[in-house]
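Morning!

As promised:
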Amino acid sequence: MHDLRMVREHIDALRAAMRRRGALDALSPTIERAIALDKSRRETIQAVEERKAARNAVTQQVGQKKRGGESADDLQQQSRALGDEIARLDRELAETEGELSALLLELPNITLDQVPAGGEENNSAVRSWGTPREGARVQPHWEVGARLGIIDFERGAKISGSGFIVFRGLGARIVRSLMNLMLDVHTGQHGYEETWVPVVVNRASMIGTAQLPKFEDDMYALKGEDAFLIPTAEVPLTNLYRDEVLPESQLPKSFTAYSPCFRREAGAAGKDTRGLLRVHEFDKVELVRLVTPETSGEQLEILTGHAEKILKLLELPYRVVRLAAGDTGFASAHTYDLETFAPGVGKWLEVSSCSNFSDFQARRANIRYKPTDGGKPRFVHTLNGSGLAFPRVIASILEHHQQEDGSVRVPAALSTYLGAERLV
RNA sequence: GGACAGGUGGCCGAGUGGUUGAAGGCACCGGUCUCGAAAACCGGCAUACCGGUGAACCCGGUAUCGAGAGUUCGAAUCUCUCCCUGUCCGCCA
């Protein structure tokens, strides 16, 4: 969400930012309407506050007269009349502010200077690690998984529906091992606080991290309650300090959590339907950081490095892609996608998306910090990234580490947890 | 799920219709005192929004006592709904 004053005073910058996202045409009416509403909002505020001040003066006189035993019928009459006007203006104001804040929630974040304008075609790899493997003789992961008996797609679909997976035997154990590996590295080497959070959250939390109101169709909503299954642990983790003020000395705060993630993928029907590439429920270890505004740029580099570390440990070649403005998520100001190559499907798979949200989420969620120098509370900057998402990592492992004989080599960092060096 | 009891400023806590944004205390900041510190004493100490030509400061106004709605000339105080917390009972992994 944007600061109303910023919208008012830097409207050109806002328009330019929307243009870089390729969304100016679509959002221009929203911006114009917001500006108009802001103007009428302030006019109404002035009108209503003037009357409130008048009424306050009158009712005080009523009080004095009554205490003196006098009647105050005329004053009461006057106050009642003012009250009627106030009620009318208050309704008008509520209506205006309701529409205005709804509009503000629809505007995406402003991307940072280093983010190129335009869409996906302007994404650029900023670095890469390892060598993507030639894939002609590599079996896709869904065939490997079925052949080894570690992934049961059919029964997942039977018990839950398409896009739900059952891992079995060593497959299930791989999930548990990935969870332990990632949490151990992020807590032990990267200094994150390990957390275990609810996967059901309320509407306020979903608005705080900007899944709502725009993406409600992609969320699993609980029947009979205003609550949702999380699409990522980003939601509970970032909202931990919603409506709180942290001492600056506690920043940066960093949290990691394993959680299942639930996504309806409403807009993606028919895309990546095979295998593990796009499922409705998956597992992930998430990284979240709350930092001071001055440091969020460097903090994104740090966080991205933490996610990369896992790919290195799993010996999976990857590239780091800086997303162009039009491909950058709604709430993000700067995003790096981590993509690992899966030779069996012949695709780069996004296994992590590391973002700096600047103060966009902090403003919505009202997460602030008190500066050490004694200044007024300011909004923190929030960041998060997957570290990493399991299914595509598993797909990549099954394909990249596939051997000539069809078995799969387990990288050393993982085999410690798995208790097996090969999947046969 | 049922029955009670509660939700007031950073914290504790007073306040049941009218100069209450809110007593008192703690914490915090400044000062006096002291060689210095402690104690004592004095003073300060909420946030948001609107306006006063932009910013800083300042000034005026409005709102805020869990949230929302209502009664009233006037609500922290009365009524209703909801949320949350505590205690007891029931149920349950």
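Chain A has 13 helices and 17 strands.

Hope this helps with the figure draft.
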